[in-house]
Write a structure and sequence with these properties.
about 70 residues; 3 helices; about 65% helix; globular
Amino acid sequence: MYFREGDVIAATAQRLGVHINTISYRLRQCEELLERPVKQRRFELEAALLLCLMAISLAVAPPEER
């Protein structure tokens, strides 16, 4: 959602219905894990998130829909 909102923390928080500090905290956590700013590897992160969503949807889909 952060990327869809143009990397704007306030817009992301409003869209998700959470406090701005929540988004800031989560982004800091991501950056600590990645050891670099989130914006620096945007494409890779978006691709990884998309692949995760696809994997989850396959895992929960009935066998006849796979």
